[in-house]
Design a protein that fits this description.
42% of the residues lie in helices and 18% in strands. The protein contains 5 helices and 7 strands, in the order βαββαβαβαβαβ. The longest helix has 29 residues. It is globular and about 50 Å long.
């Protein structure tokens, strides 16, 4: 018997070509969701679990707004997951100001830009889920001070932005897995928050086992 995939919900996954983005795309695809993937570099033959690819640099505010507006003309986004990220590979004392700016602009700026673009339509519809990713570096090996600091900004952003959006039934949360983490476990958590949960908002969801 042929199994027919019925797609009745749509998720936008930013960073769809990364490890976590791919795991999330696979999970949602297998659950029958329509998956729209965003990334700076796209290979349409790389991942069969993404239904539609859209090139987008999250650091470009105008570009993000135009991209989301174009997507919203065709789809109603039920959920958004940003799995894109970056790390400071040179250590605390050796990272210059430009590299720090890029790191912060990618992590905090990219999430802010994406949230600014997707939130108006979700508020109008009085429903939606926005999920971010902020790895927990406290037990990670190496010099991760700046990466931890950059991702830590998302905790404050989600707690404040999430409370504002909850008034319109849009639930915003950030997942914080301990580094190194299992991408499939993170994808499971993303799916739960996007598909099953109807209450959690403005929370830092720890996936650390501690």
């Amino acid at each position: 018997m042929r199994v027919v995939k019925i797609m009745n919900k749509t998720i936008l996954i930013a960073g769809c070509c990364g490890m976590t983005g791919k795991a999330a795309a696979r999970r949602f695809h297998d659950e029958g969701w329509y998956v729209i993937g965003l990334d700076v570099k796209l290979n349409e033959n790389e991942d069969k679990y993404v239904d539609t690819y859209v090139p987008c640099n999250l650091r470009d505010m105008e570009g993000v707004e135009k991209t989301i507006a174009s997507i919203e003309e065709k789809f109603e986004l039920d959920a958004v997951f940003n799995g894109a990220g970056a790390e400071a590979g040179t250590g605390f004392e050796n990272t210059g100001s430009k590299a720090w700016d890029v790191l912060l602009d990618t992590i905090l700026g990219g999430n802010v830009n994406l949230c600014r673009a997707v939130s108006p339509c979700m508020k109008d519809r009085k429903r939606g889920k926005i999920i971010m990713l902020a790895p927990d570096y406290r037990d990670a090996e190496g010099d991760n001070v700046l990466s931890a600091a950059a991702y830590g900004t998302l905790h404050g952003f989600v707690k404040s932005f999430g409370m504002e959006m909850a008034a319109d039934n849009v639930l915003v949360n950030v997942i914080s897995p301990a580094v190194p983490f299992d991408a499939d476990l993170v994808a499971d958590t993303v799916f739960y928050l996007a598909d099953k949960d109807t209450y959690t908002a403005a929370q830092v969801v720890s996936v650390s086992g501690a």
